[in-house]
UniProtKB/TrEMBL annotation:
Known EC number: 1.1.1.37
Family under the similarity heading: Belongs to the LDH/MDH superfamily. MDH type 2 family.
Database matches in InterPro entries: L-lactate/malate_DH, Lactate/malate_DH_C, Lactate/malate_DH_N, Lactate_DH/Glyco_Ohase_4_C, Malate_DH_type2, NAD(P)-bd_dom_sf
CDD domains attached to this UniProt entry: MDH_chloroplast-like (cd01338)
Gene3D superfamilies xrefs: Lactate dehydrogenase/glycoside hydrolase, family 4, C-terminal (3.90.110.10), NAD(P)-binding Rossmann-like Domain (3.40.50.720)
Enzyme class, first EC level, given as a word: oxidoreductase
Described function: Catalyzes the reversible oxidation of malate to oxaloacetate.
Protein name listed in UniProt: Malate dehydrogenase
Database matches in Pfam families: Ldh_1_C (PF02866), Ldh_1_N (PF00056)
GO terms, biological process: malate metabolic process; tricarboxylic acid cycle
Length: 325
């Protein structure tokens, strides 16, 4: 058995965490020989519920769980962590404008960025899930100057997995046969799920599906999938979000084996001319614990336009919280 690693999860009494923590404890993220110490963060009113989650974790008697810390203090929850899932966020309340939402979350993520900066392992891998995920990640990054900006990412994997599943279903194939899907931009309805390079069963997806389906059905279905799930389930995506968070961190830590994934990353130095001061989702490969943007892709006029729309939204989000950066 290896020495345990420390994994923080915020929003630990919430619905995504209720799936995520148990998947991590089971070894789905780092494998069956990697013990974990779980460091769970909540806000004071949710500490009772978090205690219930801790009781259930203990009752699972997981072989890989080497310790559990539950706290309402980010300085405690992030102490020496190697991996951090920032899931907890302020949801939109009645009468709240988008700018109020951005600002309320900016406050949360600036505190958590500082706490990570001061207390986490210098190599910590951070994944922001709480919405607006990309801009929350930007705030976290700006408040953690001693961490490598490459170690802070935001979750686009759910959008990526949704796109793969739509393609597999349409082609009568399986997600394992779908490669080189990209979701560019923001985790929002402006995201651009792109099939320009994608293959299914080794054939170009563009030769398997018609362009009308791509533009009129596929893109809006992936963009609106979160809303469709809320409508059907009466609650937002939780198990699928947890699954994607595990996929993201696993591939980042253990490698994607040449497979393309989509990750929200700090755009500094990106090869596609995207604003360098936002968190933007690109096609990524991971190796040796590092991610890398897939370079040299030809960008069509349609793609350029779609990429610019989602970029503009992220620039607008950054401007709405500029005073807090
Ligand atoms: P829940 O409302 O079930 O849970 C959120 C939990 O976070 C609550 O228990 C709350 O007490 C806690 N919390 C709030 N502020 C906190 C803080 N400052 N520190 C620690 N904990 C805090 O939401 P859930 O369904 O779990 O979703 C969590 C977040 O993920 C939401 O912001 C949601 O919008 C976002 N999502 C992001 C996705 C992505 O792909 N990036 C997809 C799924 C999901 O919609």
């Amino acid at each position: 058995m290896k020495a345990p690693v420390r994994v923080a999860v915020t929003g630990a009494a919430g619905q995504i965490a209720y799936s995520l923590i148990f998947r991590v404890a089971h070894g789905d993220m780092l494998g069956p020989d990697q013990p974990v110490i779980l460091q769970l963060l909540e806000i004071p009113p949710a500490m009772g519920a978090l205690n219930g989650v801790v009781m259930e974790l203990k009752d699972c008697a997981y072989p890989l769980v080497a310790g559990i810390v539950a706290s309402d203090d980010p300085n405690v929850a992030f102490k020496d962590v190697d991996y951090a899932f920032l899931v907890g966020a302020r949801p939109r309340g009645p009468g709240m404008e988008r700018s109020d939402l951005l600002e309320a979350n900016a406050k949360i993520f600036s505190v958590q960025g500082k706490a990570l900066n001061d207390h986490a392992s210098k190599d910590v891998k951070v994944l922001i899930v709480g919405n607006p995920a990309n801009t929350n990640a930007l705030i976290t990054l700006k408040n953690a100057p001693n961490l490598n900006p490459k170690n802070i990412t935001s979750m686009m994997r759910l959008d990526h997995n949704r796109a793969m599943s739509q393609i597999a279903e349409k082609a009568g194939s399986h997600t394992t046969k779908v490669e080189k899907v990209v979701v560019w931009g923001n985790h929002s309805a402006t995201q651009y799920p792109d099939i320009s390079y994608a293959t299914v069963d080794g054939k170009a997806v563009k030769s398997v599906v018609d362009n009308d389906w791509y533009v009129d059905t596929f893109i809006p279905t992936v963009q609106q999938r979160g809303a469709a799930i809320i409508k059907a389930r009466g609650a937002s995506s939780a198990a699928s979000a947890a699954c994607s968070a595990v996929d993201h961190m696993r591939d980042w830590a253990l490698g994607s084996n040449g497979k393309w994934v989509s990750m929200g990353v700090f755009a500094a130095g990106n090869p596609y001319g995207i604003d360098e001061n936002i968190m933007y989702s690109f096609p990524i490969t991971c190796e040796n614990g590092q991610w890398k943007i897939v370079e040299g892709l030809e960008i069509s006029e349609f793609s350029r336009d779609m990429m610019a729309k989602t970029e503009a939204e992220l620039v607008g989000e950054r401007e709405a919280i500029a005073s807090l950066l």
